[in-house]
From TrEMBL:
The gene is xth. The record marks 149 as: Transition state stabilizer. It comes from Nibribacter ruber. One of its GO terms (biological process) is DNA repair. One of its GO terms (molecular function) is metal ion binding. This is Exodeoxyribonuclease III. The record marks 248 as: Interaction with DNA substrate. Probably binds two magnesium or manganese ions per subunit.
């Protein structure tokens, strides 16, 4: 079973790219972030024609998450994090798909830091960690994936010294991510590729993609009962080179069928 995550950076502007990537790679399940589209503007019909049923949480101009599946329609569990009811930003969607619980997230960027946006990021991460712990307690097979906006280590950034004061790389952000992993989650990419330089995001400026000057900020976290089922994980770098592509590349994992 192949599962992917892709920050599309505006689904209306990137629909052609998204459909091409789906056609060429045929993932079974896809989590999308940064839809930048209200609920009624989500291209459900075009995706259905491509073979994917979907649930989504839109938001005008910003944010937005979706879960696509060609192995049965996702059964929605929740939208938004429990205990975070005052948050009106569309950043978390959770569903059952083919026996898996899948959480699709778009974690806040947090810049400029320090400041209110960074404080919001850390509060969101705290709510997320609480929910992640409750999910683990269920003993279900669980995947939490999406754009985390976290650079976990120096290996995950081109010239990490340039990111020291950025919200994605500040000590508080990395510590919160480490605490999340300490609950028992497996970072799929790093589990299979512990020392490789792997990036998932490349800025549009300064020929970042051409220079391989990227960041690894899109992650798959797997519950312990999925760790041994992980067969492969990677990044579809080529899609980042396509015309009108997102500044993120799709990330994917393959699991042994249960």
């Amino acid at each position: 079973m192949k599962i992917a995550t892709y920050n599309v950076n505006g689904i209306s502007a990137r629909l052609t790219v998204l459909l091409r990537w789906l056609q060429e790679t045929q993932p079974d399940v896809v989590c999308l972030q940064e839809l930048k589209a209200p609920q009624e503007k989500f291209p459900a019909e075009a995706l259905l024609e491509a073979g994917y049923e979907a649930i989504w949480q839109g938001q005008k101009s910003w944010n937005g998450v979706a879960i696509l599946s060609k192995v049965g329609k996702p059964e929605e569990i929740r939208r938004g994090l429990p205990g975070n009811h005052d948050d009106d930003q569309s950043r978390y969607l959770e569903a059952k798909v083919n026996g898996l619980t899948i959480g699709c997230l778009y974690l806040p960027n947090g810049n400029p830091a320090p400041g209110p946006k960074f404080e919001y990021k850390l509060r969101w991460m705290e709510h997320f960690a609480q929910h992640a712990a409750s999910l683990l307690a269920s003993k279900e097979p669980i995947i939490l994936t999406g754009d985390y906006n976290v650079i976990p280590t120096e290996l995950d950034a081109y010239k990490p010294e340039r990111w020291v004061e950025d919200a994605l790389f500040r000590p508080e952000t990395r510590a919160a991510f480490e605490q999340l992993l300490a609950q028992g989650w497996t970072d799929a990419i790093r589990y299979l590729h512990p020392k490789e330089t792997i990036y998932t995001y490349f800025d549009y400026f300064r020929n970042a993609f051409g220079r391989n000057a990227g960041l690894r900020i899109d992650h798959f976290l797997l519950s312990p009962n999925l760790k041994d089922k992980l067969k492969a994980a990677g990044v579809d770098r080529e899609a980042r080179s396509w015309e009108k592509s997102s500044d993120h590349a799709p990330v994917w994992i393959e699991l042994e069928d249960a």
